[in-house]
Design brief:
Number of domains: 1
Number of helices: 6
Shape: globular
CATH architecture: 3-Layer(aba) Sandwich
CATH superfamily: Alpha/Beta hydrolase fold, catalytic domain
Helix content: 25-40%
Structural class: alpha/beta
Mean pLDDT: 95
Radius of gyration: 17 Å
CATH topology: Rossmann fold
Largest sheet: 7 strands, mixed
Low-confidence stretches: none
Strand content: 15-25%
């Protein structure tokens, strides 16, 4: 866990499926007067080794810690699977004043990896709330057969087309200010399509860039490193341009 003390707003920073603690993003936010905290939410002691039935109460505990610092506004900022978690949490936890979702999903997906029981199959929800798994969209039977590096965009597009309606993240239930940041060239999943679906459920600020990929970079963050395993789309310049365009809207959402 990393906590960087700032001023009136507190933001819980959630990385994606890497599960890492994003101290660098916390530092960027703290330089702009925000108390930022990042936490490991799977793969740690007592946690599922994969993104499988992760209790959303894990993030509520993070909000509790932020609230204890005396901040007057609580927010959650997540990227990719962390954005899926952030949006879902905002629909269930009324204390969330703002949610910033980078490369979001509009549905809850099946698990990525094993749960506490060590099993990855059959497919289960990524998240639970009050001990109950949330409805989810299962993955298609056929996985991408190209690469590495591999694009999963078409795979998720097939999954979205067959997703049950109850898997949709009910964004209309949140009172939070919502900022959605998505690149049209995202090759991991169709985040701009997801952002559009979310914005149709509830008023939200959608920030996009036609050439950006899955990993937008906020001002002050270094370019993401290429991966030998996955195609993320975009370019260093386009990903930075998307982050720069989103930055004023992010700061506005975090302002008390």
């Amino acid at each position: 866990m990393a906590v960087v003390q700032g001023a009136e707003a507190g933001v819980l920073v959630l990385a994606g499926s890497s599960g890492r603690i994003d101290a660098d993003r916390c530092d960027v936010l703290a330089r702009h007067g925000v108390t930022a905290m990042s936490m490991r939410w799977f793969g740690g002691p007592g946690q599922p080794p994969g993104i499988c039935e992760v209790p959303l109460e894990t993030f509520v505990a993070g909000l509790d810690l932020l609230a204890g610092t005396g901040v007057s506004r609580l927010a959650v900022l997540g990227v990719s699977k962390g954005a899926e978690a952030a949006l879902t949490l905002a629909c269930l936890e009324p204390r969330v004043d703002a949610v910033i979702a980078l490369s979001p999903s509009s549905v809850v997906w099946a698990n990525v990896g094993p749960g506490l029981d060590g099993a990855a199959h059959p497919q289960r929800s990524s998240w639970t709330w009050r001990g109950e798994p949330l409805p989810f969209a299962p993955y298609p039977a056929e996985w991408p057969d190209h690469g590495p590096p591999t694009s999963f965009r078409a795979f998720y597009e097939r999954g979205l087309a067959a997703a049950p309606p109850e898997a949709a993240i009910p964004l209309e239930r949140t009172r939070a200010d919502v900022v959605l940041v998505a690149g049209a060239d995202d090759q991991m999943w169709p985040s701009l399509t997801f952002a559009g679906a979310l914005a149709r459920r509830r008023e939200a600020r959608v920030v996009s860039h036609p050439a950006a990929g899955h990993r937008p970079r906020l001002p002050g963050e270094p370019p993401a490193q290429p991966s030998p395993s996955y195609l993320y789309g975009g370019s260093a310049a386009a990903d930075a341009a998307l982050g720069a365009s989103a930055w004023p809207h992010i700061l506005a959402a975090l302002s008390p």
